[in-house]
Amino acid sequence: MTAPGAALVRFVAEELARPVPAAVSTFAAELAARGGQGVVGILFYGSALRTGATDGLLDFYVLLDRLEAWDASPLLRFGARHLPPNVEYAETTAAGMTLRSKLAVMTLGQFRRHARHQSRDTTIWARFAQPSALAWSRDAFAAQAVAEAVAVAVRGAAWWAAHLGPEKGSAAGFWSALFSRTYSSELRVEGASRPGSIVEAAPDRYDAALRLAWAAEGIAFRDDLGELSPAIGRQARADAERAWRARKRLAKPLNLLRLAKAAFSFSGGADYIAWKIERHSGHKIEVTPFQRRHPLLAAGPALWRLWRKGVLR
Question: 130 and 275 share a domain?
Answer without folding.
Answer: no
